[in-house]
Amino acid sequence: MRDYELKIGKGLRDVNDATLRFFQQMGVEHVVMPTSYNTEVRKRGLVPGTDHGPSPDQMLQAWDANELIRIKRKIEDSGLKVEMVHLGRCPRILHGRDDADVELQNVKQSIRAAGKAGIPVVEYNFTPLRGSEGYARTSGRGNAGLRNFDYERVKDLPPLPNVGTHTREQMWDRFEKFLKAVIPVAEEAGVRMSCHPNDPPVEVYRRTAQPVRSLADLKRLIETVDSPSNGITLDTGVTTEMGEDAAETIRYFGSRDRINHCHFRNVRVETPYYKYIEVMHDEGECDMLACMKAFHEVGYSRLIIPDHTPEFTGDTVALQRGWAFAIGYMHALRHAAEKV
Prior knowledge:
Blueprint: E1 7-11, H1 17-25, E2 30-33, H2 65-76, E3 81-86, H3 91-94, H4 100-116, E4 121-125, E5 135-139, E6 145-150, H5 168-189, E7 192-196, E8 204-205, E9 208-209, H6 215-224, E10 230-235, H7 236-241, H8 246-254, E11 259-263, E12 266-271, E13 275-279, H9 288-297, E14 303-305, H10 320-339
Parallel strand pairs: 1-2, 1-14, 2-3, 3-4, 4-7, 7-10, 10-11, 11-14
Antiparallel strand pairs: 5-6, 6-13, 8-9, 12-13
Helix pairs in contact: 2-4, 4-5, 8-9, 9-10
């Protein structure tokens, strides 16, 4: 196995034996693990639920290293290797609350726990409120279920009382302080942090600024703290939603060793940032083969996961038809890219 082999993986929502066996059969070898020992298979909705913001007492709780190890061992006993885990919402930090420092300590403890458990990457989001109300269901070829986004649905919505209003300047001030506090901890723990861009990448939602919603924002992120532990999740879908060339974006961040994770999906864009449809991997505007070749060129060696799947008629609760199509397509692209 070459050091730069592209790792096609899958994010796990449960550690049910049937789930683990299915993805192993699909040729998946590396996964994103859940943070709870959940064996119940639940359907993932095509359209994400509305983000109502945090409850009054919500705060990110620190991970327990022994529990992470228990979950990781269950997965790896099935023949899959854990490569990443996702950090939960950090509302105290994101909203600039008085007790944000308490939550920041929990983030640091969680990063140390991931390092102790031997999990190399921790992914996170930095947005005060996700614009999920802008999504709706539509249909594609063969009446497959797709989802679209239109900013017109949400652009005039008022702020939520439990969230408030947050300017871009406030969000970036908090973000820079966050990065300067946690990246040294990640370096010491042997962990890479991976920030997912705000999706949908609108400028403002319910009067909350979305601070990581453009290519310039992602560049600013990695420049704030110059470290391989301070990287991004390169989402080919979001990059295309921004109106950017995903393959060139891979070359920019990959040549700097700042891509720590990848969401590999496709979209058709009507208006960059504001209106688009998430489609099958083989029919959108993003050149997926060019992206796979770009990953190969820069020697990328971390995870590439399909992240989303359209809804196939008659699919299982676990959406196995959709994931099988996506993973099979990605395997074919990887083979093609490695032949070049």
